[in-house]
């Protein structure tokens, strides 16, 4: 009987421990406007909190997301991120937002992933080909989006957005983190600093050394 009670108690402890790490804790105050310096602040989730009595409407405000961003670059795209760094009132709230602009046919947000956020995208204008790749065994899940369509990219999975229309495309993305982070796959693999040993990449990607050297130079690393 004692053994049964001990086993039951152990299971309850394990479940309680799991639940404690499965969800963010409930906020202990209405908001926590981020400040850069610790003066009169407390350290929470990477940012210090302003005295709430000093908060103003501007701490919860970001202007200009209606303004098209410059897409005259190599990728033909531009991402305007509204995170805790640009909107301090997002601190501890677990969300952020981005505007995605794409040049006509060919504008691309290249394969990447967000280490700390799921992304939900709504297409406002144009036509996008979007998709993500599942973990092993890898499977591509993709869709062509038209204005008003919504698509979700699960946290930590490689995904992309590509303009296949003849006009500019515009989308809005919501992200489930105040600081989602982004890892561009090609830049991370071929443009790291210091660079990854080319022998690792030639074997890992089954490519010739001259191809690896070219890619590392293309993405900014020196070999």
Automatic annotation (TrEMBL):
Gene Ontology terms: cellular component: apoplast
Record keywords: Apoplast, Disulfide bond, Glycoprotein, Manganese, Metal-binding, Secreted, Signal
Signal peptide: 1-22
InterPro entries listed in its UniProt record: Cupin_1, Germin, Germin_Mn-BS, RmlC-like_jellyroll, RmlC_Cupin_sf
Subcellular location: Secreted, Extracellular space, Apoplast
Disulfide bonds: 32-49
Domain (Cupin type-1) ranges: 63-213
PROSITE patterns recorded: GERMIN
Alphabetized GO MF terms: manganese ion binding
Function: May play a role in plant defense. Probably has no oxalate oxidase activity even if the active site is conserved.
Main subcellular location: secreted
Name the record gives this protein: Germin-like protein
Top-level division of the source organism's lineage: Eukaryota
Pfam families xref list: Cupin_1
Positions that bind Mn(2+): 112, 114, 119, 159
Family according to the record: Belongs to the germin family.
Annotated oxalate binding sites: 114, 119
């Amino acid at each position: 009987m004692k053994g049964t009670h001990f086993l039951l108690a152990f299971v309850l402890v394990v479940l309680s421990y799991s639940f404690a790490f499965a969800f963010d804790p409930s906020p202990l105050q209405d908001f926590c406007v981020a400040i850069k310096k610790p003066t009169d602040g407390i350290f929470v989730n990477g940012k210090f909190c302003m005295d709430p009595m000093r908060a103003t409407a501007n701490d919860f405000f970001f202007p200009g997301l209606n303004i098209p961003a410059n897409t005259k670059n190599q990728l033909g795209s531009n991402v305007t991120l509204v995170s805790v760094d640009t909107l301090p009132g997002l601190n501890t709230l677990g969300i952020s937002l981005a505007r995605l602009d794409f040049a006509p046919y060919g504008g691309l947000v290249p394969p990447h992933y967000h280490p700390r956020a799921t992304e939900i995208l709504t297409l406002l204008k144009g036509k996008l080909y979007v998709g993500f790749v599942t973990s092993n065994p890898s499977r591509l899940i993709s869709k062509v989006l038209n204005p008003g369509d919504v698509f979700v990219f699960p946290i930590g999975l490689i995904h992309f957005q590509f303009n296949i229309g003849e006009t500019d495309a515009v989308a809005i993305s919501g992200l489930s983190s105040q600081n989602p982070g982004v890892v561009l796959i090609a830049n991370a693999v071929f443009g790291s600093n210091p660079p990854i040993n080319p022998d690792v990449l030639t074997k890992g990607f089954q490519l010739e050394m001259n191809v690896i050297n070219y890619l590392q130079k293309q993405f900014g690393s020196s070999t």
